[in-house]
Amino acid sequence: MNIQTILTHYSTFEEKTLTNRFFKHEDILPLIHQLPSEFKVEQLGNSVNGKSINAVKWGNGKIKVMLWSQMHGDEATGTMAIFDLFNFLQQENDMATLIKDKCQLLFIPMVNPDGAAVFTRRNAQQIDINRDFLQTATPEGKILKQARNDFEPQFGFNLHDQTTLWSVADSLKPATLSYLAPAFDKALSINQVRENAMQVIADMFAKLDQILPKHIGLFDDEYEPRAFGDNFQAAGTSTILIEAGGYKNDPEKQQIRKYFFASILSGLISIASKSYEKQTTTNYFSIPKNTKQIFHILINNLVLAGVTVSVGINFDECPNADGKSTYKSYSIQDIGDLSFCDAYDVYDADGCQLNGNIIFNKAADFELSNEKQTVLAFKDGYLKT
Known about the structure:
By secondary structure, the protein is α/β, with parallel strands linked by helices. The chain has 2 domains: about 5-290, Zn peptidases (Aminopeptidase), CATH 3.40.630.10; about 295-385, Roll (Urease, subunit C, domain 1), CATH 2.30.40.10. About 30% of the residues lie in helices and about 30% in strands. It is built from 10 helices and 18 strands. The strands form 4 sheets. Strands 1-2-4-3-5-9-7-8 form an 8-stranded mixed beta sheet, with helices on both faces. Strand 15 and strand 16 form a beta hairpin. Helix 3 (about 75-90) packs across helix 9 (about 255-275), helix 4 crosses helix 9 (about 255-275) and helix 7 crosses helix 9. It is globular, with a radius of gyration of 22 Å. One of its GO terms (molecular function) is carboxypeptidase activity. It comes from Pedobacter helvus.
């Protein structure tokens, strides 16, 4: 059974209680505690606001793999994929059996429950947990660091979401997934630990690129001395970063979570079967790089001040007070020759009339229409529908 076949049966193991990005600690806690006895649950500690941070251990093998998600409270795709994986591992199939026999997995879903509660990146101390490895001023950071020290995993999966404005070099498609073997020093050196992570990623890409062609990029390779992934790599855990980006018409990332799940599963299969050992760092570095050549909205052939230009518009996504939804604030991010760019939504302004003003770096506040209808309209940064 291959990854593509498994995804055709995705509905049989999808965790159906998680339907958008805004679930909370109280939503996942029952899911953790209702897992069958082969999943060993342990409370590792508490967040700033007293919410439990739990680990789930599964598998009988010798290869230790640690997976953690939602260090950033508004990055929920990895958590959804983990709960899908819990369900998949309970099914009778060759892949689950292989992983169970060869690996021992330690999951820490929702490292930052306080951030998830209000759908923000940072914890209740307003600290970015993923920039807290050195000082460990956050209880969540201390818990994560101690978990790795106690478990001593050979491999780690660091699960995140990235902005939807990353694209893939040459394809101009959204970077729906991005992978990285984080650097462990400023020189971006490659030792055996980091090379193992690169080889696993090359194996993952070979499988996922068939399912999601031209939508997978290699994340920015820059050493961050405060980050957990970089430091776990330095400590001897071959660390694999997976980032969920954007996909057209998928704002709640319900399609992306399938590809995210498939990435984790293919990585675990690579580790369990040791197929990664056949990969090379050349294959890793041949993965297309992430670029920023995509907008949320692109308008072509618009005449401004007597000149025909393109206009790139992006939104900032901001949480509402209840932490259960967001609003989008649109602004003008570029004007001019954008022929090298693409967007989630592209409009042709040829023959259209512009009412209002388009001003660089200001809130979108205009209406574009033709003889038949309004094509696109904004008021004070809000998209009018």
